[in-house]
Amino acid sequence: MTTFTIHSIDTAPEGSKDRMAAVKKGWGFIPKLQATLAESPVALKAYDDLFGLIAAEATLSPAEQQVVYQAINVFHGCEYCASGHTFLSRKAGVPEDVIQAIRTLRPIADPRLQALRVFAEMVAEQRGFAGDAAVDAFLAAGFSKAQVLEVVTIIATKVISNYTNHLTHTPLEDFMNDPALRWHDPKGRTPERG
């Protein structure tokens, strides 16, 4: 099995060092995902820039952003991100019943958030070929055309992180082992290990 380095600022390639320092300043620590992404300065920058851009400029509320992030984490079966975004969802004020519905593949009782989740999952599942009816249903739920594209941007961010975690076997952060955060894929998918 190929092993990927979980970099520190000292071990990171030169092109990742400044970004790693900024991540540490922003988060208070360097998450293992970013420490793994640091192997490629381009991948680290792409993920960090997209994540930051969505947080700073998206018209979807922070809670709505988390619904999309978490729906895609669960869709992709990413234990690391689904565990981490459980924490981030609570911090963003996502109601606990919504968090649990996404984590356990149950419908969300709130019709607007369910429409958001269904649209995000359909776009991911159909690789963008969700069709006009899906877009029309999303708009009818009160979302905008710009938010159609914000969902695509969030999915792109999750492709970077979820696929990286699957390919590199990013270990969970210690805090993610808390039973209130740790997520196990109800579909039983796990990344293949050599």
From TrEMBL:
<dbReference type="InterPro" id="IPR003779">
    <property type="entry name" value="CMD-like"/>
</dbReference>
<protein>
    <submittedName>
        <fullName>Carboxymuconolactone decarboxylase family protein</fullName>
    </submittedName>
</protein>
<feature type="domain" description="Carboxymuconolactone decarboxylase-like">
    <location>
        <begin position="43"/>
        <end position="113"/>
    </location>
</feature>
<dbReference type="GO" id="GO:0051920">
    <property type="term" value="F:peroxiredoxin activity"/>
</dbReference>
<dbReference type="InterPro" id="IPR029032">
    <property type="entry name" value="AhpD-like"/>
</dbReference>
<dbReference type="Pfam" id="PF02627">
    <property type="entry name" value="CMD"/>
</dbReference>
